[in-house]
Structure formats: C-alpha cells, structure tokens
Design goal:
With about 475 residues, the chain is an alpha/beta fold. The chain has 20 helices and eight strands. The chain has helices at about 15-20, 25-35, 50-55, 60-70, 95-105, 125-135, 155-165, 180-195, 210-220, 240-250, 260-280, 295, 300-315, 320-335, 345-355, 370-375, 385-395, 410-420, 430-435, 435-460, and strands at about 5-10, 40-45, 75-80, 110-115, 140-145, 170-175, 200-205, 225-230. The relative contact order is 0.13.
Amino acid sequence: MPKVLITETVLRDAHQSLAATRMTTEEMLPILDDMDKVGYYSLEAWGGATFDSCLRFLHEDPWDRLRKIKDHCKNTKLQMLFRGQNILGYRHYADDVVEYFVQKSIANGIDIIRIFDALNDARNLETAIKATIKEGGHVQAAISYTTSPFHTNEGFAQYAKQLEEMGAHSICIKDMSGLLKPYEAYQLVKTIKNTVDIPIQLHTHYTAGLGSMTLLKAIEAGVDGVDTAISPLAMGTSHTPTESLVATLQGTPYDTGLELEKLDVVAKHFNKIREDYLASGLIDPKVLKVDVNALRYQVPGGMLSNLISQLKMAGKSDKLDEVLEEVANVRQDAGFPPLVTPTSQIVGTQAVNNVLFANEGRYARVTKEFKGLVRGEYGRCPAPVSDEFKSKIIGDEEVIDYRPADKIAPEIDSLRQRVAPYQEQDEDLLSLALFEQVAIKFFEWRKQQKYNLDANADVANGVHTI
C-alpha cells in the first residue's frame, strides 16, 4: 500500500480559516527552506482568498509572493485553490481571462491547481481544466462537499467520474465546512474509488471536532492524500494537525514517511506567529473552539471568521448565533448551494442583512450577488428554487439556464487598455481583472513606495531635487 500523501495548508487555508488570510509573505519566508525539506506531497500556498488579501490588506503583490515561495521551495510541489470560472474573484470571467490566469499561475510556480465550482456545475470548470492541461499543470478537480436532501454519495461519485472524463488528474473531496463525519467519509471514499481510476484527496476542516477521525476513516477506505495544518495553526475552523496524523500513521501500512523532528522545526516558527495573532486579536478565540452546530449551519472556517469580523464592525457581535441560524434558512431558500467562495459570502451576507434589518422583513434588503445566485449567474443550484421565491428576489428578470460564461465577451483587450497607466509586469493585468479598484489602489501605493525609495536614495547620495 502506498504511503499517504500530505498537503500542508498553513501557507493558505489554515491562516485563511483562523486569521482572515492576514499572514504576510515576510512571516512565511524564514521557514520555507525548512518546509521544503519535510517531504510534503505539496504546499497549498496560493489562491483562495490570499490574492485578494495581499492586494487589499497587506500591500503585497500576490504574484511576487508566489515567486518568492517558489524560489525557496524547489523540491515540493506548490498548489493553489482556483474557483473555476470565478478564478479567485467573485464573479464569472471571460474564458480568455481564465486561460491567461492559468498560464501565468503555472509560469510563476504553481504545479497543482485545485479547481472547484461552488455549485458543482461542471460547465464552470471546463475552461480552467483545459487551460491547466495545456500548460502542463496537474488538474485536481474538486467536489464541493455538502449535505442536503439533494446530495448523495452516488451523486458525488458520478460528478467525480464526469470530472475524470473532462481530464482531471486527481479528485479532491473538498469538505470546506467540516461536515463529513468519519463513517460517512469511509463510505464516500469507497464509492468514489469504485467509480474513478485517478487518485483521491480529502480536504476537511476541524470546525465540528471531527477532522482527525474523518481523515483516519478516509485513509482506511483508501484515500490517497489528505490536507493537514501544522499544529499551531490547526484545529478550530482550520484542519487536523499535521504532526498528530503523521504520528498516528507511523509504523502502519499508511505511514506518511514524514519525520516529526522536521515538522517540529516548522511548528516552532508558526507557534510564535500564533502567539502574536492571539495577542493582537487577529485570531479570535471563537474560531478555535469546537462547534458541533457547524453540522447544522454548514459554515466554512473562512466564512465564519469573516462573519465574526462583519458583525464586529457593525457592533452586533451578539447576533452571531442568530446569523448562523439564518444562513441555513437562506441556503435552503436558494436551492441548497454548497457554502464555499463565492456562495458562502453571498449567502452569509444575505443572512446578515436578514438579521440586522429584520424589522424591515426578511429579504427586504437583497444584495446584487444574491439576486445573481437566484437568477443563475453563478451556475445551476443543486435543488430547484421555487418560482415564488424567484419572483420575490428577482421579479421578472431572465433566468440563466446556459453556461454563464457563454455570454461574457472576451475581456483581455479592454483590460490591456485599463492597466496600461499602472503596468509594471504582465500579471498586473490579471490583478486588475479580478479586483480592479483594489488593484489600482495597490498600483498607486506601489508607485509611491518606489518614488519614496528613489527620493531617499537621492538624498543619501547627496542629490538634491527641486
């Protein structure tokens, strides 16, 4: 039996789940050489919310982050999370933008692209899968796992088969909310393994306290690889601790081959970061506790930390339980979409509106994005949405029943014109494509920083400008 492969998430999903994606590149760099020596199958180091967070909050170029990580990690595959036709943004983009983004991601250091669609609508993965294959990358196509009266193991297995036929090199069961219980994981992995011929990886969270048990049963069922997080940034809304699983599997047919001594070096670095985050409030203790109610709410770790942040800013932290209850209601109304970006933000924000403005009535304030979800702008929801609810949310607007991107005109040429005043690298076009206003602010900040550096250098060299 081959060893179980370990994907380490601390550079992306672990801090996205616990600390709202605020880890800086500077905090990562000192430990990367040691991480490269551990023997991980891959490092999940990019994608997800990191791109937005770099530009919006950290004054960092996400492409520069990727290149720096790659410079230090020559022996370990780098992996990213890619939202299909949404790329790393919150809407569908034209096919030419998706293709260019994949090209540049692989050119800058990504080896494995984990591609998913929030609604499990395979039409939204077609372009990204084809582009990744064309560029020589590894396609890990993901199933967004959820539970509802409309989701079954057999249905997930058939979706996995469809993804395999589309060209996927491996399948990821993406349990973003930690809903997958141990014995259900065993049956799901068995069902999918009996249906496809490519490797299966399991990604789950610790939110409901099930993570380690779920991974162990999946491993017994024959899963090929699992996602874990180094212990200081594990558990809570994050993942199973890497060291704990490695120790559990040592000396068994599933032995990972990783050494605890090397992992301890990594853990010591991130333990200091954890302490700093707790002291500064960047990690809220609420995201560290076990919450079995997550099985009801189906809220992913990143979504929970963002909901907490939203309510804090509104001065309504006491409304969290009420909002979580409303998330489940809104999800049912919208056709049971899995809660993962962007649907998690869409459903979550609408639930916040329903609670904060309850005196005006439920759905009195409907976001543009929620209207888009009900209308079909993001793809096909798993369950039918009632005509009555559609009418309430979108009135007599057209319902989209085709692949949404089919009606999006090519965007690259117009993007070239808009980015021209700011562009310093090819990749700037893609930053602008995904987050135009945020990217422009970053470009202007970057230009000012360069000006300040040049001015300081002139002063140091005795050059005076008027």
